[in-house]
Specification:
Layout lengths: L1 E2 L6 E7 L13 H8 L11 H8 L3 E6 L4 E7 L4 H13 L5 H20 L2 H14 L13 H6 L2 H11 L5 E7 L3 H11 L23 E7 L6 E8 L10 H12 L5 H9 L3 E8 L7 E9 L5 H18 L3 H20 L3 H10 L5 H12 L3 H11 L5 E8 L5
Parallel strand pairs: 1-5, 6-10
Antiparallel strand pairs: 2-4, 2-5, 3-4, 7-9, 7-10, 8-9
Length: 407
């Protein structure tokens, strides 16, 4: 329960500890497809009525699927929390999966894949990059939305089996944020979710190592590309797997090196040398398995990819060999802490942040201790984290370019 009196609204987020990484090769897209089917009705709520009921009561709702979790959320007036909690608990156990709904929703999911992946060159390249980085047919290598062949052949039995296996109270995290009290939420939760029989859920597993054939390079030339992009992804530890002690230092490193327009990489390549239009670095430790650290650059029109790669290498070497200053680290820490405060202040991003951590093995104590752990990172820690992750044996370089003759 995350109390907030800022506005007379509440947000319920129910996060299941299951995502696309719990699928197997040849059966991808099940978690995401089931997310769609969860709106198709129960014996108490007709197909498609869930969202319409929320809307008629002045609220809004949606859902999402990630590699490690699937979440359902509604934002309503406080006196409607009982209603949405009742409906959410109802579809936790009473979902009806009908053939007619499966057939129609398959076309929706296939169109979503076409619009978000197949028609987006960068998304296609990212899909190929993940296959190399995590190993073909491995959990994090397969797309969340699934492969077209798997979506096409998905049937009721597979969806129903997945639903019964993972959709149970003991495999879910409930977060309620907004204008209510812990006592009121507990009462409603006991009334609606407490009556659902407990069922044992099996432990989830993720590979603790990446492929042995790294480094790799992948590229895609596409007529739809306007701006080229160079990027490099490295396998990295998360909060749960690998050298987990570096997770907080890696967050500071990503922010310091390429997390904003005041970062090292941006200043060196965009402001000073003017060889790039933009530059960035990214890292998230919230994963049940290994995660990735990435650096990317959009080259300026007059500069080649080879120049970009060489310039990035120089900046990385400068950090590893020359270290970072206490002032740089402090600035990155302050930026991270400010971003976290803003995120938790939102009834949209705040509950999702909690849901992501709690559904991947984290605890409330971990969330509460995060500011102190970030503040404790030293310049020596940042350099050590860079040396750990920035290694050829864990890297995939990817290149996106216009097709020959299209520019």
């Amino acid at each position: 329960m995350l109390p907030s009196r800022r506005a007379p609204i509440v947000t319920q987020v129910l996060v299941y500890k299951v995502g696309s990484a719990d699928e197997t090769f040849g059966h991808t897209g099940v978690a995401h497809f089931l997310e769609h089917m969860m709106f198709k009705g129960t014996d108490r709520v007709a197909s498609g009525e869930f969202s319409r009921i929320v809307s008629r009561n002045g609220g809004r709702d949606n859902a999402y699927t990630s590699f490690d979790s699937t979440g359902y959320h509604q934002t309503v007036a406080p006196d409607r929390l009982d209603m949405v909690m009742r409906m959410e608990a109802d579809r936790m156990t009473g979902l009806r999966i009908a053939e007619r709904d499966l057939v129609s929703e398959r076309q929706v999911v296939l169109e979503e894949r076409r619009s978000r992946v197949d028609n987006v060159p960068s998304a296609l390249l990212d899909e190929a990059t993940r296959e190399q980085l995590f190993g073909r047919h491995k959990p994090y290598a397969m797309p969340i939305i699934g492969y077209v062949d798997d979506i096409t052949k998905l049937d009721i039995t597979e969806l129903a089996t997945f639903y019964r296996r993972f959709y149970t109270p003991g495999n879910a995290v409930l977060i309620v944020a907004g204008d209510t009290t812990p006592e009121a939420v507990r009462k409603l939760a006991e009334r609606h979710y407490g009556a659902i029989p407990a069922r044992k859920t099996e432990a989830r597993r993720r590979p603790a190592q990446g492929p042995i054939d790294l480094p790799q390079r992948v590229s895609r030339a596409d007529a739809r590309v306007v701006e080229p992009r160079w990027s490099c992804d490295w396998l990295a530890p998360s909060y749960r797997v690998g050298e987990t002690k570096y997770a907080h230092a890696l967050q500071v490193l990503a922010r310091l090196f390429g997390g904003s327009e005041t970062s090292r990489l941006w200043r060196a390549m965009v402001v000073d040398a003017k060889v790039a239009l933009s530059a960035w670095a990214g890292y998230s430790p919230v994963s049940l398995g290994l995660t990735s650290f990435d650096i990317g650059v959009h080259p300026a029109p007059t500069h080649t990819v080879a120049e970009i790669e060489a310039a990035v290498t120089v900046e990385m070497k400068r950090l590893v060999d020359g270290g970072v200053t206490a002032e740089e680290v402090e600035r990155a820490q302050n930026q991270l802490l400010a971003a976290a405060i803003y995120a938790q202040d939102s009834l949209a991003s705040g509950p999702r942040l909690y849901g992501a951590v709690l559904s991947t093995g984290g605890t409330m104590a971990d969330i509460d201790a995060w500011p102190e752990r970030i503040a404790a990172v030293t310049p020596v820690d940042v350099v050590a984290a860079a040396r750990l992750v920035w290694r050829d044996s864990g890297a995939v370089v990817s290149l996106l370019t216009p097709a020959a003759g299209t520019r």
